[in-house]
Amino acid sequence: MSLLLRWIYKVRAQGFSRRLESACRDPRGTQERFLREVLRKNRDTVFGKDHGFSEIQGPQEYRARITMRDYEGFRPYITRLSAGERKVLTADEPFMFATTSGTTDQPKLVPVTRTWKKHVTSLTSMWIALAQRDHPDILRRRVITMVSPAIEGYTQSGMPIGAVSGFTADRMPWILKRSYAVPYPVTLIEDYDLRYIVAMRMALQHRTSIIVTPNPSTLMRLGETGVREAETIIRAIHDGTLGVSLKSDDGDQAELEQRLLSLVRPQPERARFLEDVVKKHGALRPRHAWPDLALIGCWLGGSAGIQSSSLSDYYGDTPLRDIGFRATESTMTVPIQDNTAAGPLALNSGFYEFIHEDDIELDDPPVRLAHELEDGHRYYILLTTAGGLYRYDINDIVEVQGFYRNCPQLAFIRKGRDMASITGEKIHANQVLMAANTASESSGLVWTQVQVIPDVHRSRYDLLVEPKDPAASIELLQKFAIAMDTHLSKFNEEYSQKRKSRRLHLPRIHQMKQGWYERRWKADVISGGKRDSQYKWPLIGLQWDQEAQREIDRVLEAETTEEFTGPLRLIDDLGMPRS
Known about the structure:
Layout: H1 3-25, H2 27-41, H3 46-50, H4 59-65, H5 71-82, E1 96-100, E2 108-112, H6 114-134, E3 142-144, E4 153-154, E5 160-162, H7 164-171, H8 174-177, H9 192-204, E6 208-212, H10 216-228, H11 230-239, H12 252-261, H13 268-281, H14 286-289, E7 295-297, H15 302-308, H16 312-315, E8 320-321, E9 343-344, E10 351-356, E11 368-369, E12 378-384, E13 392-404, E14 407-415, E15 419-420, E16 427-428, H17 429-443, E17 447-455, E18 460-467, H18 474-491, H19 493-500, E19 508-512, H20 516-527, H21 546-550, E20 552-557, E21 569-571
Parallel strand pairs: 1-5, 3-6, 6-7, 7-8, 18-19
Antiparallel strand pairs: 1-2, 4-5, 9-14, 10-11, 10-12, 12-13, 13-14, 15-16, 17-18, 19-20, 20-21
Helix pairs in contact: 1-6, 9-10, 9-11, 11-13, 17-18, 18-19
């Protein structure tokens, strides 16, 4: 990276530090100022008029006038917005919609305004500047980051739908583009295996000093690809080719291939260096290919934290820094230390309210503000952003892990009610139920009850099913499992993407004993003191418990982790195939 950019970030670090200090010394005042500005700016919008923004004087009245809601509560407004109506949620009109998985079979379209993007860009710049303050060499070489396509479709009014990361990468100034090892067009490769091969081919031709990408699973996949495809990648770098062909019958990827070829040239000297790495270390691992690598930025909280513990296999002892509690809807923290998921709340970029984890099912749960949080406690978080989300329940649970000055440092723990996520797919109970019902119809297996439990260590879901017929054949269970996986991919776009990119593996099937559902119901309702009328079967379990493990009749899995290519095999109590 150029000396100019390194100098710019070094200077900006001082300003960012002062701004962070000022906000964190007075979280209450900072938050109230942000809320007042959002209400003032958007009081004449459809949502602002519906909820009397012009009459709201402070957080308490804001809370009284506006009911917290999830995305479905905003969908009618966003439908009007996507149809072309103006000033629906914000005075600052959106220029695109970011997309992410929702709680139904319809993805969420999140409005992206220029004010919102300015906030996110500022927080990203703050993260980089403060990381460089602690690791002066992170911008000395190239930067590796993986983004999603900028445009994946359009609304009926012609507004683009896609990923903010891709939109930004495709439109950044040339002085920044030249600093990135993996050019934006790589993300347009449709085949995930080819995409990762080309990404590593592009990355390994350069000396790199920092990698930033949210999911540790992406980093693991890059490392695996480098080891597996070392010969292909080194030859491609030597010859100035991509190493693979993108040509297809329709020709679309052939044009992309030519675009990518224009970005490479023969580099025999770099190829010889990589060959020496393989000879010396036995494999092409990133920690040897990039000796200048000074920092990795990725998620360290929740299930990602478990995955990040395996990064040393490929990246050695490279320092890790969480990139912040980020979602499509908002960036909520800016970590300022290595090896922790916690970071100070982004007080200048959103207004935040919190509900204690234990209170979430109450009809009128107590709500706390940032300055009222307690260390070590866990909370659901409600967002108000410059993008038009007001008291938005993102259904995430965070934990207070100390304070920076007077500002709580928050770490993401897990998804909240009726949700699970291993690598960012965010499966909702509604999607599990829809997939199970559809899979039953298409496979012919009739079930009494189903449940899925995330297996973070193996990057897959355990599928628990009690068939009505206890003698259901393995073939019938296999049909059901294939259909379940297929329909989860249909109903959840991000599950589909993670499966295609092999960051999520095939589910493992657990046939439960007859009466499992009834025994669990009795334990929860009768022994647990719950009301029958209020009982809700947990379609998503957070983890295995002893009772569930005792209810397993048999376990079946595919011979590979990626496809149901052959018959399922029985697994014994030690997780080994039965003879």
